[in-house]
Amino acid sequence: MEEKNVIFETINQLNLTLMATNAEEEIFRGFQIFAPRIFQEADGTLMRLLEDVRTLKPVAMWGESLDECQFVNAQECWALRTGKVVQCGFQSECLCSYLKKLVGQGYFGVCSPVIAGSKHFGVLTVRFRHFQGALNSSYRRQEKFLSSVVSIVSLMVGSTLSNVSLRDQLKDMSIRDSLTGLFNRRFMQETINREWHRATRENRPLSVIMFDIDRFKQFNDHYGHVAGDSLLQYLGTFLKKSIRASDIPFRYGGEEFLIILPGADVDVAAIRADSLRRSFSRTLIPIEGGYIEGITFSAGVAAYPHGGKSPDEVIKLADGALYEAKKQGRNRVVKAVSRKGRIVFEVVSDTGVQEETHDTVNNERSQVVNKIQ
């Protein structure tokens, strides 16, 4: 009885630890600490179901290495397939071929699904070696008790993983634009303040690109708001695929977008902005069952330290550079730079003939949609 009390007290400590976690990695680290104390004289593995829903990967292990648990086909796991605890050894029959591999003479194995509601997160597998004291009173009672302990712990882990997943989803919804999937303006302000402090602390540049789609209102008037939303969605996808992993894209509002580029000075950011502009203008965009080409955007670029002296000032200068790009004919990039102590706007790319081509495409978009199927 005393040994059981110790086990349940340790389970309670694990539960308190899990309740304080905010990420999956913290859950797995906490479990790794308490599992050997709960499951003494045992070997075990906690496996996480990967996104492909076919593979189980170990995220916490203790005791002797269970080589069979490196990567497991989820379809071979009887506990995961049935959603119930599976046990093998002693007087138990075993339907799970995977669990059979782990259990030999003198061993007792338990495999419990890590679930919450209908959501499957993984599997907890424990192989018990031998027992002492009150736990040896009978095999049947022993099996039942150990299975219940594994089940309780797996339910606790599953519940915690579900809570963390839900918190992550809610947080993600609060910081992302629902149409494009990019981060929203509120999170942009939080991000640029964080990156600003990092840039000043590490004495490195920080740039901002602000841009919007040229003649978006005319596009909406001609094709309707559904097509306009499709265009914005496509641009969001284009940005996520086209920028560096360290660059952070946002939907600033309406047809305006913004990218924060940590570590990039104004010249590097301007080159990247112009590369994005050129690439997007050559892209065939799926709209209304066909494709449209020649959609362009204008961009303004500003940076710290050679320009804005605060996050708000950098954004304001980028917005001013964007306005200048629009005023000079659209479909171009303008950067705000400091020259002899004053801010000036310089055109990075002069599109000339490209602007004329863009006008033609704008006027004949319906033919393009019908022509390119």
From TrEMBL:
CDD domains: GGDEF (cd01949). Gene3D superfamilies: 3.30.70.270. Its EC number is 2.7.7.65. PROSITE patterns: GGDEF. One of its GO terms (cellular component) is plasma membrane. Residues 204-338 form the GGDEF domain. It catalyses: 2 GTP = 3',3'-c-di-GMP + 2 diphosphate. SMART domains: GGDEF. It is an enzyme of class 2 (transferase). GO terms for biological process: cell adhesion involved in single-species biofilm formation; negative regulation of bacterial-type flagellum-dependent cell motility. GO terms for molecular function: diguanylate cyclase activity. This is diguanylate cyclase.
